[in-house]
Amino acid sequence: MSVSLLDDAAERRIMAVFHPRAWRNDYAIDVDPEGPVEFDVTAEIEAMGEAAARRLKDDRDNSDDLSRAAGAPDWIRNWSGPF
User: Fold this and answer.
1) Residue 33 needs a FRET pair 20 to 30 A away by CA distance; which of 8, 15, 72, 78 works?
2) pTM of the predicted model as reported, rounded to 2 decimal places
3) Is 83 inside any structural domain?
4) Is the residue at 44 inside a domain?
5) pLDDT reported for residue 57
6) Domain encompassing residue 37
7) Quick check: is 82 in a domain?
8) pLDDT tens sequence for the chain (83 residues)
9) Residue-wise burial string across 45-82, b where 16 or more C-beta atoms lie within 10 A, e elsewhere
10) What whole-number distance in Å separates Cα of residue 75 and Cα of residue 34?
11) Beta-strand (E) ranges in the chain?
């Protein structure tokens, strides 16, 4: 999971990008997504507070919970494989 900041004149949004993977021979490999991979996580980031938000790291376990964000597509919230 990675996070980026979208900055337009009207409003700033924090977007997450989901990277679906599957297990093959005990290795997590990239697989084709089942739908859109980018979604808004602004509310979740703001709710966790500045200190916790600053501890988030792309492609680490501590960002995985963002896959359950309200704005995440259903296929991402229900993904059973690694990511």
Assistant:
1) 8
2) 0.79
3) no
4) yes
5) 87
6) 2-77
7) no
8) 666 665 555 678 999 999 999 999 999 999 999 999 999 999 999 999 999 999 988 888 888 889 999 999 999 999 998 98
9) beebeeeeeeebeeeeeebeebbebebbbeebeebeee
10) 7
11) 2-7, 12-17, 21-24, 27-30, 38-40
Q: Is residue 60 part of a domain?
A: yes
Ordered alpha helix ranges (H), the chain:
42-48, 50-55, 74-77
pLDDT score at 81: 87
Q: What total number of domains does the chain contain?
A: 1
- Rg of the chain, C-alpha, whole Å: 13
Q: What are the CB-based long-range contacts (under 8 Å, 24+) for 75-78?
A: 75/33, 75/34, 75/35, 76/18, 76/20, 76/35, 76/37, 76/39
CA distance 46 to 75: 24
Residues constituting the chain:
83
